[in-house]
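Exercise 7. Given the encoded structure of a 255-residue chain, write a plausible sequence.
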């Protein structure tokens, strides 16, 4: 059985003793390799806030980033299982927590959003590409809310970042190319928001601990910024060729 984290296996030998994993930064498309949207966006300036944070945490930065990424992955996997209709539990059969409470809280924030606004799920964890932009990626969620088609990406970071808006805009562009349907709205479901509750004016989609953020810029403006970042990325990465990792899957000591 293939673990979810390795669902993009490139090749398995006939005897199942050799496996080749693709570079997660690239997607294969008609013989070409398209860089992932997130890989391209690594070329976007991190900004003064990031530089100040880096100075503050010093050598702990790598550990903090790794821990944050693991929490984000765990939340995404819970959401996938929720979409599959599985019953999810914070406690195991012995009454002990099965995961970090922060992960469960963020997942509950997602459940609050989903059960309050009752979106109609169209696609989840869908691979997308754009032949025009020469990029590809995997969108968290395509859904309908009040008859509007949304691209929604789930985020568990401490702060919202400009690259999230750019990422969503590109996913919307990719979806329209792949499916021929226009995306009406693009949002980031921020599951670690400081929001205290629903918007009393009823203008924003938000609840306690979460909010559905929309970019202050237009789709066109975000795509224009992304194209500028892509030019820098292409300059620094002139050859789009992924590195693959091959290894044997069975080992036995000769006696």
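Solution.
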């Amino acid at each position: 059985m293939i673990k979810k984290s390795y669902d993009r296996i490139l090749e398995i030998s006939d005897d199942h003793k050799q496996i080749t994993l693709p570079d997660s930064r690239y997607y294969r498309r008609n013989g070409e390799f398209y860089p992932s949207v997130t890989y391209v966006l690594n070329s976007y300036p991190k900004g003064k806030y990031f530089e100040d944070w880096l100075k503050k945490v010093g050598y702990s930065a790598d550990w903090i980033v790794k821990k944050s990424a693991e929490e984000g992955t765990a939340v995404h996997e819970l959401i996938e299982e929720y979409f599959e209709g599985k019953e999810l539990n914070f406690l195991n059969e012995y009454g002990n927590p099965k995961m970090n409470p922060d992960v469960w809280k963020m997942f509950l924030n997602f459940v609050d959003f989903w059960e309050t606004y009752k979106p109609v799920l169209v696609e989840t964890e869908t691979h997308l590409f754009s032949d025009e932009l020469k990029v590809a990626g995997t969108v968290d969620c395509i859904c309908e809310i009040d008859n509007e088609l949304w691209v929604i990406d789930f985020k568990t970071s401490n702060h919202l970042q400009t690259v999230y808006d750019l990422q969503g805009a590109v996913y919307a562009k990719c979806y329209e190319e792949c499916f021929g349907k226009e995306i009406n709205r693009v949002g980031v479901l921020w599951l670690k928001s400081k929001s205290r509750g629903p918007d009393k004016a009823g203008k924003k989609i938000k609840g306690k601990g979460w909010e559905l953020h929309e970019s202050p810029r237009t789709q066109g403006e975000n795509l224009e910024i992304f194209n500028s970042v892509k030019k820098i990325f292409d300059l620094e990465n002139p050859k789009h060729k992924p590195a693959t990792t091959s290894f044997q899957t069975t080992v036995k000591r000769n006696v």
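Remark. The mean pLDDT is 87. Students should compare their own answers with the one above.
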